[in-house]
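== Sequence entry ==
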Amino acid sequence: MATEDQDTENLGDKAKDALDDVAGAGTANKVEGGFKETIGEAKSSFGQATDNAELQGEAEADKLEGKTQQAAGEAESIGEKIGDFVEDAKDAIGGFFNKVKDALDGDDEKKDAV
């Protein structure tokens, strides 16, 4: 039986997948990374205001984690675009070779029109 933490984690994963489906691959990581970076900025400001070195250290770790997650989201987005490009190129090349084959076989449209 799933625990409440597991249910929450599964719900979070589903929400991220839905966001990526709607807005494109990597969007959830970019958003979550931006949120973590913002939290880090807030911790940094508070740590400086209270002269709390430990909190400032946590802030730097949060900001780095956020930037890393945003970069991962960007990589996912680029990967999806490359995949789409490869599929389009494959289709175009296949169509070209089919036309060449048809022309060599004498199955071109001009012959059908006669």
Q: What stands out?
A: The mean pLDDT is 86.
